Amino acid sequence: xxxxxxxxxxxxxxxxxxxxxxxxxxxxxxxxxxxxxxxxxxxxxxxxxxxxxxxxxxxxxxxxxxxxxxxxxxxxxxxxxxxxxxxxxxxxxxxxxxxxxxxxxxxxxxxxxxxxxxxxxxxxxxxxxxxxxxxxxxxxxxxxxxxxxxxxxxxxxxxxxxxxxxxxxxxxxxxxxxxxxxxxxxxxxxxxxxxxxxxxxxxxxxxxxxxxxxxxxxxxxxxxxxxxxxxxxxxxxxxxxxxxxxxxxxxxxxxxxxxxxxxxxxxxxxxxxxxxxxxxxxxxxxxx
Length: 288
Ligand code: ADP
Ligand code: MG
Hints:
Blueprint: H1 4-15, E1 18-20, H2 23-28, E2 34-38, H3 39-43, E3 49-55, H4 61-72, H5 78-87, E4 95-101, E5 105-110, E6 113-118, H6 120-125, H7 132-140, E7 144-150, E8 153-161, H8 166-177, E9 181-185, H9 190-200, E10 204-206, H10 214-222, E11 228-232, H11 238-243, E12 246-250, H12 255-260, E13 263-265, H13 272-284
Parallel strand pairs: 2-9, 2-11, 9-10, 11-12, 12-13
Antiparallel strand pairs: 1-13, 3-8, 4-5, 5-6, 6-7, 7-8
Bound molecules: adenosine-5'-diphosphate (ADP) and magnesium ion.
The site of magnesium ion (MG) has 7 residues, from helix 3.
Main location: membrane
Family: Belongs to the cation transport ATPase (P-type) (TC 3.A.3) family. Type IB subfamily.
Keywords: ATP-binding, Cell membrane, Hydrolase, Membrane, Metal-binding, Nucleotide-binding, Translocase, Transmembrane, Transmembrane helix
């Protein structure tokens, strides 16, 4: 039988903005020493707007945007949504043979040419040159930069800005008050990640992490001897949510994340993570 105190607090939990799907994990929340947050869509709104378009070659900015958007039409990533929105209905050509390059970008055939839209990390891997100073300056401002490669030649770059959620700062300071370490995990590049982490007072940053490496990063923090929660919204985050002692999914996130989470934040508010821990302590604190 479920102890009365537990069923009462599960009801309380719902009125507090979260749902408990796994009681064992909810109980473990009272011992948390570290909370890992996904960046995009969790600490930030996950709504990217295009801020800069840099055309490197003979290509015009408009042509660059159209060609880039052609490939991004087929992607669900928030970066893709921002680029497609910016291009509007402006004669965006069709794409064939669309493929995603997991954790690094997308590619396809546009008007007979191979077009890739990729991360700075991908360019470094391929040893392709790019104007580093200019790109790093944009990244230090917290912008996410992607590059467009047309037939193996770098054609340009698009910078996008995301909004840090107001609630994120409160979430981090509440967790710090409870003596809990805050960690950020993202596929985005190091400078962009560092900017967001600096704004929020995050203690530890893992950037440029590929989707299939996210769970291993959670394990790395667990191996430092800590009980760990992972908070995320994306399909990419699901293995990390499963690895964590407490997997916390953003309610508005992907179905896969929500189905994997032990706890669901129904109001999509990272601040509610602190309430999860407080309520777990209040419920189980004296039952050890
Ligand atoms: P995150 O969820 O932290 O953004 P992802 O693994 O989804 O991590 O993406 C990591 C990086 O790969 C992005 O920051 C971007 O540079 C690149 N990327 C992923 N998807 C796309 C896309 N559709 N278009 C361009 N770049 C992409
Ligand atoms: Mg995300």
